[in-house]
Amino acid sequence: MSTLLAWIRSALFVLWLLLTVVPWALVLLLASIRLRGTPLWRIAAGWLATAIVGARVICGVRVRVTGRDHLPLGEINPTILLLKHQSTFETFLMPTLMPHPLAYVFKKELLKVPFFGWAMGRLDMIHIDRAQSTRAFNKVVQQGRRLLAQGVWVIMFPEGTRIPRGQKGHYKSGGTRLAIETGAQVVPIAVTSAKCWPRKSFVLRPGVVDVSIGKPIPSTGRQPDEMMREVEQWIEGEMHRLDPEAYA
Asked: 121 FRET partner, CA 20 to 30 A, in 45, 86, 240, 243?
């Protein structure tokens, strides 16, 4: 597909996001006066699903998922999802795939984004001040324990930021520390989103985003750094398997 056509289709996708996020955010803000928890989450997840549909219909970005049968069963099964982070795409995608509401751990600056951030502020998620690392992690543990006990899964990106295709960031142990503190299990997930939507790029290109869901890793008796190394090895191994040309 020509570069010009890719730009046009990407511009239409961005327009689709803008046209849908404003009414959806307003509905969520109004609903938050009376609703809390899962009903409010479903409203938010509905908009994220429209974003994924828009990426498929307008830009030709399709999704292929393997390992869905690895996801834990049960209404209350404390789980922390640890993902490869390459793009905005997986932040939109994960709530559309998971059987439980998700609580993202994210920097508080996102709350200032018009409509999108305002709506996020009404959801029961974990927003932190990265400048205050100790206090921030204590908040993650405190809120994470409460949310996990309610059947909400916590989702974190151990590399901390979006990583270019074919590269590996530094895996921080915050996610496994939280798992050990709360007794939750960890599910590692590899995502090849940068094949279609690279970080810091306006342009989406048609193709397949592979999502590979690993088997749950129990946290009992583990050490945070050692457990994170296992998560890192699995995710990076899957990334090489799913996108070999990026690591040639």
From this structure: 86
Distance of alpha carbon 247 from alpha carbon 190, whole angstroms: 14
Distances in whole angstroms, Cα of residue 148 to Cα of each of 14, 54, 113, 145: 34, 31, 27, 5
How many residues are present in the chain? 248
| Residue 109 exposed, middle or buried by CB count within 10 Å (0-12, 13-18, 19+) | exposed
- 73-107 exposure pattern, b = at least 16 Cβ within 10 A, e = fewer: eeeebbbbbbbbbbbbbbbbbbbebbebbbbbbbe
Determine the pLDDT at residue 237.
97
Looking up residue 123, the CATH number of its domain turns out to be: 3.40.1130
Give CA–CA dist 187/153, Å, rounded: 10
Q: How many domains does the chain have?
A: 1
Q: What is the mean pLDDT of the chain?
A: 91
Q: Which residue range(s) make up the domain with 151? A: 3-247
**pLDDT value for 126:** 82
Q: At 1, is the pLDDT very low, low, confident or very high (cuts 50, 70, 90)?
A: low
Structure tokens at 45: 């997840």
